[in-house]
Automatic annotation (TrEMBL):
Organism: Flavobacterium hercynium
Family named by the database record: Belongs to the UPF0173 family.
Signal peptide: none
Hydrolase keyword on record: yes
One Gene Ontology MF term: hydrolase activity
Protein name: UPF0173 metal-dependent hydrolase B0A66_12200
Length: 225
């Protein structure tokens, strides 16, 4: 499983011979100017919620790639009505896709589309594939529901928001990593806007002091699990 960071909360995942894009917000992020969305491959686009900083580039990428949009029922319906292919899910449910198993899990946040349309309730994803399991938290507060995840899944990586203001801060993300029982963390949802600027060194040290490994990738950089 290869995970590429496209800035903010945008990820590329290559797994099981398929390409997945998560929450594409690239053309609106000056820090991601080096990423050309017209070159990104996508069989699936996973969306945690409907906010503009998670769905901005969905239609452009889906039009070109014919990718299947996977999200909650309301977001899936929104895109189906615009003639895109979508797979609706809801909280607690999972589905075996051709690349692996995806579960839509709870997040504490909000989820309206930029045009005001209802975007259902926000979530995160647990992906089990190629004997590697990851948790993509989405935008969320720290929540006790995270404790449910390790009851079913032993995680190899937790992708957690750490930018504060709209989501967890570093301290809450450290507790979240305890809740999901995973000490390997990829941080996201930081630095993009003034509200969520973080001190990288200090954040990495705070995780390190608790025996945890926080990775902060350069935009365009990848990790292999
Ligand atoms: Ni959001
Ligand atoms: Mn966001």
């Amino acid at each position: 499983m290869k995970i590429t960071y496209y800035g903010h909360a945008s990820l590329g995942i290559e797994v099981g011979g398929k390409h997945i894009i998560v929450d594409p917000f690239i053309t609106g992020n000056p820090q991601a100017a080096g990423i050309d969305i017209n070159t990104l491959e996508a069989d699936y686009i996973l969306l945690t919620h409907a906010h503009g900083d998670h769905v901005l580039d969905v239609e452009t990428i889906a039009k070109r790639t014919n990718a299947v949009i996977v999200s909650n029922a309301e977001i899936a319906t929104y895109y189906e009505q615009r003639e895109f292919k979508a797979h609706p899910m809801n909280h607690g449910g999972s589905w075996n896709f051709d690349f692996g198993k995806v579960k839509y899990v709870n997040a504490i946040h909000s989820s309206s589309f930029p045009d005001g349309s209802y975007g259902g309730n926000p979530g995160g994803f647990v992906i089990e594939s190629e004997h590697k399991n990851i948790y993509i938290a989405g935008d969320t507060a720290l929540t006790m529901d995270m404790k449910l995840i390790p009851l079913r899944t032993k995680l190899d990586l937790a992708i957690l928001p750490i930018g504060n203001n709209f989501t967890m801060d570093v301290e809450d993300a450290i507790i979240a990593s305890d809740f999901v029982e995973c000490d390997k963390i990829l941080g996201y949802h930081f630095d993009t806007f003034g509200y969520i600027k973080i001190d990288h060194e200090e954040s990495i040290r705070k995780f390190f002091d608790k025996g945890k490994d926080l990775m902060l990738l350069e935009i365009g950089a990848s990790i292999e699990l």
